[in-house]
Write a structure and sequence with these properties.
InterPro entries: SQ_cyclase_N (IPR032697), Squalene_cyclase (IPR018333), Terpenoid_cyclase/PrenylTrfase (IPR008930). By secondary structure, the chain is mainly alpha-helical. 52% of the residues lie in helices and 3% in strands. The chain folds into three domains: 106 residues, no CATH class; 149 residues, no CATH class; 240 residues, Alpha/alpha barrel (Glycosyltransferase), CATH 1.50.10. The protein has a two-stranded antiparallel sheet. Strands 3-4 form a two-stranded antiparallel sheet.
Length: 552
Amino acid sequence: LNLKKNTIAKNAYSVAWEKTKNPKAAKTITVCLSAILSHHPCESKLFKFLDCHLPHSESHLHFSLIRSEQDGEKRERALHFSAAFYLSFLYQCKYLTDNRNLFAHFLSFWFSREPNRRTQKMWKLKIAEGGSPWLRTLNNHVGRQVWEFDPKLGTPEELLEIEKAREHFRNNRFVKKHSSDLFMRMQLSKENPGHAVLPQIKVKDTEDVTGETVTNTLRRAINFHSSLQAHDGHWPGDYGGPMFLLPGLSYQMSIRRRFVDTFTIIRWWVGLHIEGPSTMFGSVLTYVTLRLLGEGAKDGQGAMESGRKWILDHGGATAITSWGKMWLSVLGAFEWSGNNPLPPEIWLLPYMLPIHPGRMWCHCRMVYLPMSYLYGKRFVGPITPTVLSLRKELFNVPYHEIEIGMWLATSEDLYYPHPLVQDILWFSLHMAVEPILMRWPGKKLREKALKTAIEHIHYEDENTRYICIGPVNKVLNMLCCWVEDPNSEAFKLHLPRIYDYLWIAEDGMKMQGYNGSQLWDTAFAVQAIISTNLVEEFGSTLRKGHKFIKDS
């Protein structure tokens, strides 16, 4: 034990000494804590000690939780376990008398934690439910579809079926890149037991297709489709595809020191969407996401190293697109001065001008609105050890030697070359305008522009009940609200709406391109059923669909 070189031991000893005022006891406790944190061989002896002194049921649960952990998560749990052990040790040594209350705090932490991904096997799709005082609605949450983990849900047979679905997708992910929403189908088919699977009708090449054959085939198709209808009348489904959405959410959570635990199946390297070719934008964002979620630079059976090699071989993260540079700058892995200018002052221009953002395509202006706020603020999250490591991993030269400027995107990301006028405008803003706006008296104008931008952000949030126009500006708006005030009501109203964008299937968790296409899908489904001569047979399906359309 070297208290001068081992930070963990030094901190542990400091706390132990403060509690005990006894050098021998403090050193003993320090050795125990350090052993658990560093997974020392004497760890088993400490477990045995606890097993003897804690109530059997509690200690058994502790040990089963510890033993089931994966390597990437074990360190965090060990930290909390060591704290619980520390309190127990003090109690046994008579240095602590209120062990019951303090130890209960750590027990509650353990039992309130989400299980690790190997035990997260059963999720329930909750339809048209709220569940949070921070949720706002005008139609009693009709059409809302949110996945929630339920540890008590599922028979052994169903859990086995889910694992088989995951394994099948994993083995065929390069052939079939889309999921089949098997988790959702299993649940809804169980909730709609009246729709039996009708026998399939096959017609040989030498046979004629009769009207009866067509009718029976339609009946079979509509019967199956009706079994997937939710109780509020809409047809739930995945609205995924883009690969750059979940990274934004993970960056925002990382800045707030909160993480999304997801079972993601990755292929190197990542494109703009699940069927697209590899891009610097998708690859860098995905790589950084995995690092923030706990993957080491050499983890993933060589996948992380393979991805990093692809990034560096294609010029490094300096060749990422403007959206990527923005996210890296927010995270602290890139400098804001290397971004294309996003001046918030553009929101102060008269609306009559053709370049006013109000005249742009809605998705364009609503994404660049929060981006301009973050750019104007030059906001950077906490510089963690992971961020410092990313500065070394993502670039071909040492971070301090990068010549910061408006870097061009790599050829894989450049779908349409920039017009010369656009490059001249960016260069002028970068070299002439930004230096003025960053200093007095131009800084006064910047402050006014930021105030206007955040007002527009709040207006967008309130009008969409904090769902926003899409997932990109949803995460950015939420981050802007947190930057403005971490304890604000606006930020708290954003939080429960995160779940509206997350979808679970056999390919893992993903962030959707929107919170769903409920009305779109239901309207087409109803029209399709009405266009057949089977309206009477599927009257209940149509009534539920009609009610949903009216309620929404």
